[in-house]
Write a structure and sequence with these properties.
291 residues, mainly alpha, two-stranded antiparallel sheet, 74% helix, 2% strand, disordered C terminus
Length: 291
């Protein structure tokens, strides 16, 4: 498959090479991961308490408690998306300037993050509400591709493909999130065509690494002993943290590169133009077997 042996993994390697040149940029995904973990640990504490009460005394949990439970649960995911996207803006700002050989500082990137915060907040709100609705409709409705939203707003592309360049657009261009969605969809369509699917699957590339990351805790579990199990758990957690952080940085770096490529900016010293050209490929039509 291409994301294991071809375009996907080669683009990931080239993105990783850029991050190796500028190791300080990994600060953005590290801070993002730490804050998201802290948010989840803080938010999950009352959820665990509610769950414990529900198990021991189901009658004590009323409708209001259930509503609070789901509200906190959804709020956690919203906040996680918000901080992840916010720090991606900072990293994107630095990567784009680096690829264009322009001067940049981490401090200036943090200023841009907070300057762009209102738009990032609106974008995350759209992504977690309207975006979820669109993805559900895409899956269940055969008429969705011909709908006005699909053709006018998303340029006939799936939501995930159409919005692929939204983060760099919000970082660099002075437009609101709704216009950024349309801009992203048009850039992707004009550059790679439609209908298309992504050749970028960094998440799937990291799956084998995450499976390997489970080995320390599994080995210590087999050996036995609370201390050893704790050590194995810490090692596994650190490996998961590292894999997730690097994967997030690679994806953000590659998204920035594809944004510049779609805007016909020459980034050939860092990326192979042929690989960027094949980052998205035409959707293969299913053959209908004749009787």
């Amino acid at each position: 498959m291409s994301y294991l042996t071809g375009t996907g993994i080669q683009l990931a390697k080239q993105s990783l090479a850029i991050l190796k040149q500028k190791k300080s940029l990994i600060l953005f995904p590290i801070l993002s991961t730490v804050i998201v973990l802290a948010v989840f640990i803080t938010g999950l504490t009352p959820l665990f308490k509610i769950e414990a009460i529900a198990w021991t005394n189901p009658s004590a949990v009323n409708k209001t408690t259930v509503v609070i439970f789901y509200f906190i649960f959804l709020a956690l995911f919203f906040i996680a998306h918000l901080f992840t996207t916010l720090f991606n803006v900072g990293l994107t700002d630095c990567i784009i300037k680096h690829l264009k050989n322009e001067p940049y500082t981490i401090g200036a990137a943090f200023k841009r993050m907070f300057f762009r915060f209102p738009r990032i907040y609106l974008w995350v709100s759209l992504m977690t509400s309207f975006g979820v609705f669109v993805r559900i409709v895409e899956y269940w409705s055969d008429h969705w591709p011909s709908s006005k939203t699909a053709t006018d707003t998303l340029a006939g592309l799936p939501w995930l493909v159409a919005t692929f360049l939204v983060t760099p657009i919000l970082t660099i261009e002075n437009i609101n999130p709704w216009r950024a969605i349309k801009r992203s969809a048009q850039l992707v369509k004009n550059t790679w065509g439609a209908p298309i699917t992504s050749n970028i699957a960094i998440g799937k590339i990291t799956v084998p690494l995450k499976i390997i990351a489970f080995l320390p805790v599994l080995i210590m579990l087999l050996i036995g002993g609370k201390t050893k199990l704790l050590i194995g758990s810490i090692i596994t957690s650190l490996l998961f943290f590292s894999i997730g952080t690097v994967a997030s940085a690679i994806h953000c770096t590659l998204t920035s590169a594809l944004y510049l490529y779609a805007n016909t900016v020459n980034i050939s010293p860092n990326y192979d133009a042929e690989l960027l050209k094949n980052a998205f490929c035409p959707v293969k039509k299913r053959r209908v077997a004749s009787l």
